[in-house]
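Exercise 7.
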Amino acid sequence: MPPISLPLLQEEQAELVGRVRVLALRGAHVIIATRNLKAAEEAKKLILDSNSNAHVDTMELDLSSFKSVRTFADNFIAKNLPLNLLINNAGACYVLAFPTLRRWS
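Solution. The predicted structure, written as tokens, is:
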């Protein structure tokens, strides 16, 4: 793989770009699910700049919102794509309860 020039990225962003880039180089269709679509689009651009044949999409997903999770699931299902691999990269939340609008915890 030829090296690519990356801007200064936070550790999580650099890991994401690296993982997605490798998967895309191996022919995977990668969906970046994120709360921050702007950052995901920047990551997607970096990946496509180094591999114009990459199949990378971004989709909004906020795991703290049941509505967002439901919308993401519906939109993903509508794409009619297989889900072969799931990579979770989430921070820890050290609270006793995390209620949602529907009082989930």
